[in-house]
């Protein structure tokens, strides 16, 4: 199970690599469970401050759910399919979306179905110029099940999202960037260095403030503006007892680079 998602850490960054290249890094149940386990471990490790997620090999980030596996669940009936397939996948993408440390998807190839949904859920995403995206679930007679009917319209807008969801057509990195699904496109060989560079730009700042911003944005997207402003106020209030807020203010006044404790 450990080999389904490769793990390494370097200079405060955890690298998670989906590792089923022979299956285009399809998300079987064990892979989903391993991802959740690793995210739990990373969240409790103060030395890790950001995550870069990618796929093994040169062909795929992830081609989506493991069709053979979830077909077997569907044949056992709705209760089993919801429990084993849908709920498991939704827990995984919800965990990514609400994670307290920034997660950067480094999309190195095919990002179909669940692979696209991980990209939607990640806080930031960089795509190789060889990446290709699709919402192909309609081609096998199901709607997206890992949050794709909800997150994509929030990113791309209702009509643009529905065109992708209802046709199953593939779309390019340029279209993904235009739709707000990714932040930037880079040459294939520069993908991981570009993701590291983005992570390092974030790591210059207070980890506590980073977590508060992620929480405010993630929670606020699903509320009214008035409720969102209350969330923003709450997140600011949570920073007030911290050392980091004084560190940042005093460093700015003294015109020096702050060194944050994360407390």
Describe the overall structure.
- Strand 2 (13-18), helix 1 and strand 3 form a beta-alpha-beta unit.
- The strands form two sheets. The protein has a six-stranded mixed beta sheet, with helices on both faces. A four-stranded mixed beta sheet has the order 4-6-8-9.
- The protein has eleven helices and ten strands.
- The radius of gyration is 19 Å and the shape is globular.
- 50% of the residues lie in helices and 16% in strands.
- With 263 residues, the chain is of the alpha/beta class.
- The protein has two domains: 2-203, 2-enoyl-CoA Hydratase, Chain A, domain 1; 207-254, Lyase 2-enoyl-coa Hydratase, Chain  A, domain 2 (Orthogonal Bundle), CATH 1.10.12.
Structural class: alpha/beta
CATH class of the largest domain: Alpha Beta
By CATH, the architecture of the largest domain is named Alpha-Beta Complex
CATH homologous superfamily designation of the largest domain:
2-enoyl-CoA Hydratase, Chain A, domain 1
The total beta strand count reads 10
Global outline = globular
Q: Distance between termini?
A: 35 Å
Tell me the radius of gyration.
19 Å
**Helical amount:** 40-55%
Low-confidence stretches: none
What summary fits the major beta sheet?
Answer: 6 strands, mixed
Task: Summarize the entry for a quick read.
The chain has eleven helices and ten strands.
List the helices and strands and how they pair.
Blueprint: E1 5-10, E2 13-18, H1 29-43, E3 50-55, E4 60-62, H2 67-75, H3 78-98, E5 103-107, E6 110-112, H4 114-121, E7 124-128, E8 132-134, H5 148-156, H6 158-167, E9 170-171, H7 173-178, E10 184-186, H8 191-203, H9 207-220, H10 225-239, H11 243-254
Parallel strand pairs: 2-3, 3-5, 4-6, 5-7, 6-8, 7-10
Antiparallel strand pairs: 1-2, 8-9
Helix pairs in contact: 1-3, 2-3, 3-4, 4-5, 5-6, 9-10
């Amino acid at each position: 199970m450990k080999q389904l998602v490769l793990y390494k850490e370097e200079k405060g960054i955890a690298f998670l690599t989906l590792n089923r290249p022979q299956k285009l890094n399809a998300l079987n149940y064990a892979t989903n469970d391993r991802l959740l386990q690793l995210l739990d471990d990373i969240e409790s490790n103060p030395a890790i401050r950001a995550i870069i997620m990618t796929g093994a090999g040169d062909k795929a980030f992830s081609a989506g759910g493991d069709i053979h596996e979830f077909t077997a669940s569907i044949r056992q009936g709705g209760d089993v399919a919801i429990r084993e397939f849908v709920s498991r996948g939704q827990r995984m993408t919800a965990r990514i979306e609400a994670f307290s440390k920034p997660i950067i998807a480094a999309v190195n190839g095919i990002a179909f179905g669940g692979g696209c949904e991980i990209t939607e859920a990640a806080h930031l995403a960089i795509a190789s110029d060889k990446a290709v995206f699709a919402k192909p679930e309609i081609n096998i007679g199901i709607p997206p099940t890992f949050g794709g009917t909800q997150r994509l319209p929030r990113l791309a807008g209702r009509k643009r999202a529905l065109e992708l969801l209802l046709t199953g057509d593939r779309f390019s990195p340029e279209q993904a960037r235009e739709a707000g699904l990714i932040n930037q496109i880079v040459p294939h060989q520069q993908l991981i260095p570009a993701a590291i560079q983005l992570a390092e730009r974030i790591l210059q700042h207070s980890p506590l403030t980073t977590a508060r911003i992620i929480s405010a944005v993630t929670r606020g997207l699903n509320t009214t503006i008035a409720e969102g402003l209350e969330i923003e106020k709450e997140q600011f209030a949570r920073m007030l007892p911290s050392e980091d807020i004084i560190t940042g203010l005093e460093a700015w006044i003294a015109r020096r680079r702050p060194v944050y404790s994360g407390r």
